[in-house]
Amino acid sequence: MQIALHPVLKQNRESIAVVVGSHVTGLGIIRNLARGDVPVLLLDYEANPGAYSRHVTQALIFDYRRDWEQFVPLLCAIGRQLPQKAVLYLTDERYCLLCARAWQELSQYYHLPFNPETIMENVSKARQLELCRSHDIPIPWVFNIKSRQDLENLSDQAHDLPYPLIIRPFDKSEYFDTVDPFRILHLYNRQDLSDHQTVLERELSHGLVVAEYIPGGPRENWGMNAYCDENYQVVAAYTRTKISQYPFRGGTATIMEAPFNQRVFELGEKICQALEIIGPAAIEVKYDRRDDQYKYVETNFRYPRSGSMSLQAGVLVPLIHYYHITGQHDRLKGLRKVQQEDSGYYIEALWEWMNVVENRPRGEHLLRVLKTYLVPKRTWAVWDWQDPRPGMVYGWCLAGKALHRLKSRF
After folding, report:
1. Sorting pLDDT into bands at 50, 70 and 90, what band is 405?
2. What is the 3-state secondary structure (H, E, C) of 3-53?
3. Which of 42, 51, 111, 213 is the most exposed place for a label (fewest CB within 10 A)?
4. In whole numbers, what is the pLDDT of the chain averaged over residues?
5. Alpha helix locations (H) across 140-292?
6. What CATH number does the domain containing 57 carry?
7. 329 vs 250, more confident
8. What's the whole-model pTM score?
9. CATH number for the domain including 320?
10. Domain contains 129
C-alpha cells in the first residue's frame, strides 16, 4: 500500500501524533496537541471538521469502511515511513479492537493507547460492571441478557423489577457501521418490557445490559477523563458533570461543566485499577441521592467527544499522554496533572438547539442554552477563534443540508 506522507512528518526527529477520526473527538485531541507543537497526521474515512484544522500537518482521507481489512495495513504503511514510533490516538472502540488484534504488528510503529491483554474483554459493559462489583465499587442493579432464556427469565420477573430501566448493548463498537444502531432503551413499567420484546430479541446476539435507572437529571451524571500508565495509575485527569444532553432524557452531553469533584476522582482511580486501564479512559458514574453514592455506569477506552474540555479544566490530557508515552518526562513538569478548583464549560451548540426545538417546556431549554453564550470561560465543540476553519466548514455543511431540506419541501 503506497501512502505519500508530508516531508515534515517523515523528517521529524521526535514522534508525531497519528489521530484516527476527524470529527469532534479528534478535533479536541488535535487542539490539545497544538499546545505542545506536536506534528499531527489525521486519518479518517471522510473529511470531518478536524481535517480542516490549521494544527494538522497532513490529513489523509482513505475510505477503509468499504474494506476494514485495509485499516491495519494502512497504519503499517504510514508507520514504516516514520523515523520514530508515532503516538496513536483512537476515537472509537472499533479502532481499539482492530488495533488490539494486530498488537504485535502495530507495536513496531506505534505507541498503542490501551492494555492489549484486557481490551478485547473489558470493552464489554457487562464485563466492566462485573469487575467493578468484585472490587466493591458501587453499581446499580443490573441483569445481563445473553440468550433467549435470559430474556424469558427477565420477563418472568417483570412485576418485581426496579423500574425505570435502561437497556444498552454490551459493546457499542459492534454497531460502528450500522445506519440505525441500537444505543439505549428506557423501560418505565412492565408493559414497556412486554411491548419491546421484539426489539430485544433482535439484539440478543450483541448481548444486553439491563440496569436500574438512577433518579436525577443530567447534573447527577459525573465522569472523569483520564490517562493511565502501564501500572494502571492515573497520570492526568479531570472531572466533569453534565448540564444538558441530547436526547435530553439520556444521550450525549451537549453542555458540560468541569468542576473538580474529589469523590469522583478517588472513585475513578479505583475504577482504573479494577479495569486495569492503560491509556485514555472516559469514565462515567451517576450520583444516587437515595444512598449518597456515586455508582458506576461505563468506561470508554478512548478520549470522549468532550475531550476539548481539558483546555478549560487546565489539564491537557492528550498532550500529557504524548509526553509520558514518549518518555519526555522533563516536559511533563510544567503541566498540571490534576485539575484544580477552577472550571469551564463545553458546548455542542447545534445539538443543544435541537433540545430547544424538540422538548417542552421550550422556554426552559432555551434559557439554558442562552445562558451558556454568556459564560466567560467556555469551549465550543467545533468553533475556535484561533482555529476557525473547522467551524466554518461545519457551518457551511449544515447550511447546505438545511437548504437541501427546504428545497425538498417545495
Report:
1. confident
2. CCCCHHHHHCCCCCEEEECCCHHHHHHHHHHHHHCCCEEEEECCCCHHHHC
3. 213
4. 93
5. 148-156, 190-195, 197-202, 262-274
6. 3.40.50.720
7. 329
8. 0.93
9. 3.30.470.20
10. no
